[in-house]
Design goal:
With 932 residues, the protein is of the alpha+beta class. Among the domains are: 1-201, Sandwich (Immunoglobulin-like); 706-932, no CATH class. The protein has 17 helices and 43 strands. The strands form seven sheets. The chain has a 17-stranded mixed beta sheet. Strands 1, 2, 4, 5, 6, 9, 15, 17 and 18 form a nine-stranded mixed beta sheet that branches. The protein has a five-stranded mixed beta sheet with strand order 20-21-22-24-23. A hairpin with a 2-residue loop joins strand 36 and strand 37 (724-736). Helix 5 crosses helix 6 (358-370), helix 6 crosses helix 8 (390-404) and helix 10 (448-470) crosses helix 11. It is elongated and about 110 Å long. It starts with a helix and ends in a 5-residue tail after the last helix.
């Protein structure tokens, strides 16, 4: 049945006049525009494109005369890598679209706008290529209606975000030219974004889709083709047969045109796949309203989708009872190949990813179908106030779970059950560290993590507090009234507040003020008790400060295996005062070793993100030997390092830039050996000496950008010790490759100098502090900041361990001091490592190529010991996110090769291999990052 647009407009105008509330604050009458669509579109499943023609009836109900209309042409968000969509994906850690090729991208063109039959010019938006300004040939006065028409051609992209295609499975969303909303706040042109949804005008839709006959289509609205309805039902009654045939699609025997109609909606989406199975049933609502419910799904192994129709019907009944009767006559859920986990809602239809867990699928369907109310029927501005959609809907989802879902019992044999952080712990952690954002924050301004937690989860908590304050019965009455007054319209937060205050007869200023505030909701302060937990607390920590206990082990060549305890109070949310102690009994040296750290952190939330004062230390053996009496003796070190670090705040919460400055002092005691000659056998034997102490002052400034594309870091450092100073600069820059991996460039430079006059004694005393070009050994780790299996080994496996420090040329030159490039003046080097193409090997292996080159002051003087530039190249095997690296030098400077030839025992392939264990470089951002 065709829609009578004129009668609908008359009805809509009457509805607005009769039901429009006056905002008590602004004293402005409510109005909204009406936009009706008639779209004809055809799908080319070879070129993955659409060709269409759209007619738009635009009715101006505003008090203003319009001379232009902002139009969304969102398919152009996929046109190139300079769109707001592309930029946001990069900020959120995704590079897949940025490095996509031309065939994977999409666009819309062929636009030729007519207004009332007259040619209408367009202007580009000054910032966004997916927004254009349609200049009207003549003014559009209040109360008048115009018809806008245009053909369009659209190349569907690979599904990077909500819509597009995955091979010949199509998810057609945000696909047609669409006017932006014009309301009492003016125009709302907005680029397409992955994080941040939509705001559109209500109207009537009639959409005709032409495509090959063998596709099953799921779409917004009611299907008008009776023969297609009958065929869809065969996809339901013959499910078992179709599954047995391996999901074979019907043959392509031409095309078909399907027509869908729906009134009072603000968007239209459709999905086409040759392999959809269909389930159908009806839902009888209390008012006598009957809804056709459909599930379009793929018979994938282990899928829970065979129960999807029941979940859909439950959701329709639940929201209809609690919020307001579902006004449409159809509802659908679609198992779409979306390219992401979760779901996305559109009027009368929701697409959801494949799921094997019934509870997960039930929860997701409930949430997405619920969006028919809080998005579809109550059309708030999701881009600006995401909580009005996501948070309110999540509240109802949580309420359903509390009343309908039995809690799962944890599996007792899995020790970590109940210890992983839940959403509430994450929220409390972000609040404690001042990394949270107000619920009212616009969608695009949230960090990726905060976007999920605050407009969804914390907003749902806010709703729960509101319901508790009003009482459930009164709250439900208020929300029924909200639904009745604002259905098919555009409520703002003030509109919700006004209605709640009217119905409850209570001022709610303090409640709504919380939406714009950071930090936890107000609650009574409780004195926390002390508790003890195994590894991490089983229970939540808001009422208990836990001390956590667990086992700890360690190993080095001198202490051998060490066993002890891990004692700490690290948990979520973090406390200001934190400690970690790991006392270890050494089975080799028979002494008590260990590490420990104590710190206190402030979160000022102004110029500094945090300020941390602390001290860390440790004690271990670093030498062993047998004295003249046959007793095994040990040398070693202890370290105490107090520090003060200022971490700077960023102007934008979404920034991945981190800057800090730190002042640190190392107080180190070292016990070494003295060697004496024993006349009885004419051999030298070690004897342990007393601890000798030294200090090192260090000032560091660090900047690191954890962005997904071309991340970099830089550190400038000044060190000062007895008789010397040293200035270091280390920079890293990562060049991403399009397919995977990339090239990392490290730059190092150091300047060394003496305090006072240079003497031979000072030169000898400061040798280990002097920078050098070649691989650093355990003895070069003068701050004891890196883990070494054996710090002072000249033979064996442990002697092949190095650390990425100073010049970093990865070839050990233990026997050739002159080849190490050590300098008491300056050193400079560059280190390159690059991943290899994935297609080079049948499986992905963690092999890179590296090349190091550098020079130092001594190489530029008269009679230099080496060439001016030294280099090493070879293969690098990187494991555990680059924490463990194995280096295989394959070519190097003639200075190295000529010297190695003089020691045949050392000049073999295996002894030139070295490795590093860079625990000091563990970066949890990198470990859990989606990028290399």
């Amino acid at each position: 049945m065709k829609n009578n647009h004129t009668s609908y407009l008359t009805f809509a105008l009457c509805l607005f006049v009769l039901a429009s509330p006056w905002n008590a604050k602004s004293q402005k009458p409510y109005w909204q525009q009406t936009v009706n669509y008639k779209i004809d579109v055809s799908l080319d499943d070879i070129e993955h494109s659409l060709d269409g023609f759209v007619k738009i009836q635009y009715s101006n109900h505003s008090p203003d005369t319009l001379r232009f209309i902002w139009m969304h042409v969102w398919p152009n968000a996929y046109k190139n890598d300079m769109t707001a969509f592309s930029d946001q994906l990069l900020e959120n850690g995704r590079t897949d679209f940025y490095f996509s090729n031309r065939d994977q991208r999409g666009y819309i063109n062929g636009l030729d706008f007519r207004v009332g039959g007259q040619i209408a010019r367009t202007e580009d938006h000054p910032e966004y290529i997916d927004i254009i300004k349609l200049l009207l040939p003549g003014p559009l006065p209040p109360g008048e209606t115009i018809e806008i028409s245009t053909p369009f051609h659209e190349k569907l992209p690979d599904n990077f975000s909500r819509g597009g295609h995955i091979k010949q499975s199509y998810q057609v969303t945000q696909w047609y030219p669409k006017p932006a909303v014009y309301d009492t706040d003016g125009w709302h042109p907005m680029p397409y974004l992955d994080q941040g949804e939509f705001y559109s005008e209500y109207g009537n839709y009639e959409v005709s889709i032409t495509l090959p006959k063998n596709y099953v289509v799921a779409a917004t609205g009611e299907l008008q083709n009776e023969d297609e309805k009958a065929w869809l039902l065969t996809r339901s009654t013959e499910i078992a047969s179709i599954k047995k045939k391996g999901m074979a699609a019907p043959p392509d025997t031409g095309t078909k045109t399907l027509t869908y109609q729906q009134n009072n909606i603000h968007d239209f989406a459709w999905f086409a796949d040759k392999h959809f199975l269909v389930m159908h049933d009806t839902v009888q609502l209390p008012a006598g309203h009957v809804v056709d419910a459909f599930s379009f799904y793929l018979a994938l192994p282990g899928s829970a989708w065979e129960k999807s129709l029941g979940f859909t019907k439950d959701a329709i009944r639940y929201y209809s009872d609690l919020v307001g009767t579902y006004p449409y006559r159809t509802v659908s859920v679609v198992e779409a190949q979306t390219g992401f986990d979760g779901g996305m809602e559109y009027p009368t239809i929701s697409c959801i990813s494949s799921m094997t867990d019934e509870n997960e699928l039930s929860s997701t369907i409930l949430h997405e179908v619920g969006h028919n109310w809080f998005y579809g029927i109550l059309g708030s501005n999701e881009r600006q106030f995401a909580w009005m959609d996501e948070g309110i809907n999540t509240y109802y989802e949580n309420r359903y779970k509390q009343s309908h879902t039995a809690p799962k019992k944890p599996k007792q044999h899995v020790w970590i059950t109940g210890k992983l952080p839940d959403d509430q712990l994450l929220i409390e952690t972000l609040e404690k560290t001042k990394s949270d954002q107000p619920i009212n924050t616009p969608s695009a301004d949230f960090t990726e993590t905060n976007y999920y937690l605050f407009p969804y989860q914390k907003a749902a908590q806010w709703m729960n507090r509101l319901a508790d304050s009003l009482g459930t019965a009164l709250f439900d009455e208020c929300m029924h009234a909200y639904f009745t007054r604002w259905q098919f319209r555009h409520p703002y937060p003030d509109d919700l507040k006004t209605l709640l205050e009217e119905k409850s007869d209570r001022p709610l200023d303090s409640f709504f003020a919380l939406l714009s505030e950071k930090g936890p909701f107000p609650s009574p302060q409780e004195h926390k008790k002390i508790g003890v937990a195994w590894l991490f607390p089983h229970n939540r920590t808001e009422k208990t400060n836990y001390i956590n206990l667990g086992p700890a082990i360690g190993y080095n060549l001198y202490d051998h295996f060490m066993i002890g305890a891990l004692i700490h109070n690290y948990h979520l949310p973090p406390t200001a005062f934190q400690f970690l102690l790991a006392p270890l009994y050494a089975t080799g040296s028979k002494q008590l070793n260990g590490i420990g750290t104590i710190n206190y952190t402030w979160f000022p939330d102004s110029h500094f993100k945090k300020i941390t004062i602390g001290v860390n230390g440790g004690r271990f053996s670093s030498l062993s030997g047998t004295d003249s009496n046959g007793h095994v003796i040990f040398g070693g070190y202890y370290k105490v390092a107090p520090s003060l670090r200022f971490t700077f705040s960023n102007k934008s919460a979404r920034s991945s830039l981190e800057k800090w400055i730190e002042l640190k002092t190392f107080l180190i005691g070292e016990k070494s050996f003295a060697y004496t000659l024993k006349t009885a056998d004419s051999l030298f034997y070690p004897s342990a000496q007393s601890y000798q102490t030294r200090y090192l002052n260090q000032l560091s400034f660090n900047i690191e950008h954890y962005r997904a594309l071309y991340p970099y870091s830089a550190q400038a450092q000044v060190q000062q010790g007895n008789h010397f100073y040293r200035v270091n600069f280390t920079g890293n820059y990562f060049f991403n490759y399009a397919k995977d991996g990339g090239l990392n460039i490290r730059i190092f430079a150091a300047k060394f100098g003496y305090i006072g006059e240079k003497t031979v004694a000072k030169q000898f005393e400061t040798t280990n502090y002097q920078p050098k070009l070649t691989a650093s050994r355990g003895s070069d780790d003068y701050t004891y900041s890196n883990y070494f299996i054996g710090r002072n080994e000249n033979t064996g496996f442990a002697s092949q361990q190095i650390m990425m420090k100073d010049g970093g040329l990865k070839l050990r030159t233990d026997l050739f001091q002159d080849l190490q490039g050590r300098s008491d003046d300056w050193v400079a080097a560059m280190n390159f490592n690059s991943s290899l193409p994935n297609k080079l090997f049948p499986v992905k292996i963690p092999v890179k190529i590296f090349f190091d080159v550098g020079t130092y002051a001594g190489a530029w003087g008269s009679s230099p010991p080496t060439s001016r530039f030294l280099y090493v190249g070879g293969l690098q095997v990187s494991l555990l996110k680059d924490i463990v690296n194995i280096y295989i030098p394959l070519f190097y400077s003639a200075d190295f090769s000529n010297s190695l030839k003089t020691v045949p025992d050392e000049n073999n392939f295996w002894k030139k291999i070295s490795f590093s264990i860079d625990v000091q470089h563990i970066n949890f951002r990198k470990i859990f990052s989606r990028t290399p």
